[in-house]
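Practice problem 4.
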């Protein structure tokens, strides 16, 4: 059996192994042990091949670290990826890939050593070496360019400008151009600024000496034309003060503010050249918007391109109105408010121009927006300056810090128009608001002469004609606003939310009042009421919480109240909430109240009413007779 086995294996491929076993004298080892040994050797050889091909798992981890640290973008040919990438149909490695795998181990070991050297030796800086900002910086005024600031009158505005000039001088030499409105209404403000000039430049003297950064000053005036009182910038402060005090009033009524800014930039833009590079600031002193505001975008782009910052010391804009007021004082000390262009605070007027019918006196032109007029504020914003409110409205005022949550869109007006055209609610509001200016809505009378039934019917008929016109216009306004009602909830800006809700509430309230008023007059004409007190001769239609003129009107009152209440609740402390409160203060129903009027004494019967001194007339002495008489006051000059 042993010989048979030996002869059989000599005929196989393992003949060499068996021959070796015979030489060493181990023929008595069982055949199965020999076979086992051969297979173990083969397996060991195969294992070594797999190890070289795949490599240890730690190599892949190092590769990923290197990739993250390097962070370079590599681009591969798409056609090559299709042929040899993970999605390829080929299961074999190319010659270059095989070579890379063989070299992988040595390369990764080298990279790992370099990473350890580069990354592990980094030390964190000691905590006591971290620089802390000076305590003065933590308490200093934060610079916010392009906004309105209420600084506390002219003095506060000048102090704020001193701060701005100081910061500018810390950087480099500075040119400040004081650009004064020459209107008569600005005479007092010009003198107040001249009074503060010495204080301003006194504070700046120390900086000149320390940093060798002289401050150059130019004085320019504008009205219908432009006057360069300093043909070239000066450093003589006393001369600058005298020049400001010597500015003559321009009675043309024109304020070409933007034209003046453009001419200043053209004249002194050389101060921004590479050779003579100064910081350049324009301080515009005015109380109006500027008649040439159509030049806003052109002038703003010019200032931005050349690096001129524009600041304005001006008045607040009336809320949602174009006309505000400035005060004119007559020689006898009597003052009168003259309407001038001071607004609006946004690109377009976003508030309805509607009367407060029968309510306590509310002059919407005397409600401050708490902001500067859009055109001038946008010019300041575009150039990195500030609009400083030196004088707020003498009427209702609002917290400037609160109004910053309701800022208008100070981007170029074309962006405003694009947004409006894409939003049905905004478009409806602006359409209705513009309509109230093109065709002014007037409230009919509420007092009716009734010393006879015929006199009462005559006055009631005339009043019905007026309320018919009013009712038609108000219904038209409500219809325009309702076109945007479905998208009201899409409004995100608090300013637009408050504006639309106020408009709807006020329009609906006026509609309810007009309808109820007409019904009350019709009933009075058909069956005139008898006076309860003998001798009374006047009926007055007064506001009432009881709406007895029908369910339709009660439904309109409910809608109006919901809109107005939402404004009051959601926008406390704003002009929108104030106007909504004024509207809600007076009930939307009507009732009759009786009283007595001495028509003969009031002059309403014969038209010979005595002129009122101190309002439109001035008391003078007739040089011929020596008697005092009332004469019409001269019209205030154009301001």
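Answer key:
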């Amino acid at each position: 059996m042993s010989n048979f086995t030996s002869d059989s294996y000599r005929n196989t491929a393992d003949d060499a192994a068996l021959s070796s076993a015979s030489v060493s004298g181990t023929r008595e080892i069982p055949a199965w042990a020999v076979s086992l040994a051969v297979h173990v050797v083969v397996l060991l050889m195969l294992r070594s091949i797999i190890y070289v091909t795949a490599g240890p798992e730690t190599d892949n981890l190092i590769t990923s670290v290197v990739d993250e640290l390097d962070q370079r973008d590599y681009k591969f040919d798409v056609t090559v990826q299709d042929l040899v990438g993970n999605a390829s149909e080929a299961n074999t490695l190319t010659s270059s890939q095989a070579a890379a795998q063989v070299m992988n181990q040595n390369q990764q070991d080298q990279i790992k050593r370099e990473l350890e050297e580069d990354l592990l030796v980094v030390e964190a800086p000691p905590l006591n070496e971290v620089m802390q900002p000076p305590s003065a910086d933590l308490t200093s005024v934060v610079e916010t360019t392009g906004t309105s600031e209420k600084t506390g009158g002219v003095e506060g505005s000048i102090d704020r400008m001193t701060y701005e000039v100081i910061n500018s001088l810390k950087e480099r030499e500075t040119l400040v151009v004081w650009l004064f409105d020459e209107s008569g209404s600005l005479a007092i403000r010009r003198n107040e600024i001249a009074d503060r000039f010495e204080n301003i430049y006194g504070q700046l003297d120390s900086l000149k000496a320390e940093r060798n950064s002289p401050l150059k000053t130019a004085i320019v005036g504008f009205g219908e034309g432009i006057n360069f009182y300093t043909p070239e910038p000066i450093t003589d402060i006393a001369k600058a003060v005298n020049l400001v005090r010597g500015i003559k009033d321009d009675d043309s009524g024109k304020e070409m503010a933007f034209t003046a800014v453009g001419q200043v930039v053209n004249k002194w833009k050389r101060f921004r050249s590479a050779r003579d590079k100064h910081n350049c600031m324009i301080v515009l002193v005015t109380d109006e918007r500027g008649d040439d505001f159509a030049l806003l975008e052109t002038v703003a782009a010019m200032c931005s391109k050349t690096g001129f910052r524009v600041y304005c010391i001006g008045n607040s804009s009336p809320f949602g109105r174009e006309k505000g007021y400035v005060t004119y004082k007559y020689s006898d000390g009597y003052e009168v408010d003259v309407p001038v262009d001071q607004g609006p605070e946004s690109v377009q007027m976003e508030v309805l121009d509607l009367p407060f019918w029968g309510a306590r006196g509310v002059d919407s032109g005397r409600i401050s927006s708490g902001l500067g007029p859009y055109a001038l504020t946008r010019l300041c914003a575009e150039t990195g300056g500030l609009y400083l409110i030196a004088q707020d409205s003498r009427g209702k005022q609002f917290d400037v810090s609160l109004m910053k949550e309701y800022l208008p869109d100070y981007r170029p007006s074309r962006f405003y128009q694009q947004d409006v055209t894409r939003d049905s609610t905004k478009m409806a509001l602006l359409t209705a608001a513009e309509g109230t200016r093109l065709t002014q809505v007037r409230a009919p009378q509420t007092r009716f002469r009734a010393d006879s039934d015929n006199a009462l019917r005559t006055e009631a008929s005339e009043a019905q004609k007026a309320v018919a016109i009013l009712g038609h216009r108000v219904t038209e306004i409500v219809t325009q606003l309702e076109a945007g009602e479905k998208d009201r909830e899409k409004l995100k800006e608090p300013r637009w939310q408050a504006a639309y809700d106020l408009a709807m509430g006020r329009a609906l309230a006026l509609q309810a009042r007009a309808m109820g008023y007409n019904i009350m007059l019709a009933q009075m004409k058909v069956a005139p009421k008898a006076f309860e007190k003998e001798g009374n001769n006047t009926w007055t239609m007064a506001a009432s919480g009881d709406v007895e003129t029908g369910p339709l009107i009660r439904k309109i009152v409910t809608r109006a109240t919901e809109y107005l209440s939402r404004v009051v609740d959601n926008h406390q402390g704003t002009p929108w909430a104030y106007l909504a409160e004024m509207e809600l203060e007076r009930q939307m129903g009507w009732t009759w109240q009786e009283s007595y009027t001495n028509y003969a004494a009031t002059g309403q019967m014969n038209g010979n009413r005595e002129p009122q001194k101190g309002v439109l007339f001035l008391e003078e002495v007739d040089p011929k007779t020596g008697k005092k008489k009332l004469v019409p006051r001269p019209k205030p000059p154009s301001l």
